[in-house]
Amino acid sequence: MKKFFISLREQIVKRLQSFSFRTGVIVLSLCIPFYILSFAQMALPISAETKGILWVVLFGLAKTFQYGGLSIIGVEGVKRLKSFFKKA
Q: How many domains in the chain?
């Protein structure tokens, strides 16, 4: 069973890495609104149970977009982004 999950993970990462750098940046930037929403929903007048469920879902989506975007752009893409922000 462990080999199955390792193989599945490798297949997913390989598929994500086949996307372009631009797609990776777009997917990575989508984590920002979900992080904001995951904490902003705490101000809504709803029950604590509902807030907890919303937080888990929204924070989970933020993490999914973050890790998906990082898998798409890879190590070289991260270096490229760091150099871009150092120049700015």
A: 1
Burial call 43-64: b when 16+ CB within 10 Å, e when fewer: eeeeeeeeeeebeeebbebbee
Q: What is the span of the domain harbouring residue 49? A: 2-87
Instruction: Quote the CA–CA distance of 66 and 31 in Å, as a whole number.
Output: 6
- Residue 20 confidence (pLDDT): 86
pLDDT of residue 41: 92
Indicate the SS3 state at residue 5: helix
For the chain, the residue count is 88
Q: Residue 55: what residue type?
A: W
- Contact between 32 and 66 under an 8 Å Cβ cutoff? The reply is no
* CB of 62 closer than 8 Å to CB of 31: yes
Banded model confidence at residue 38, pLDDT cuts 50, 70, 90: very high
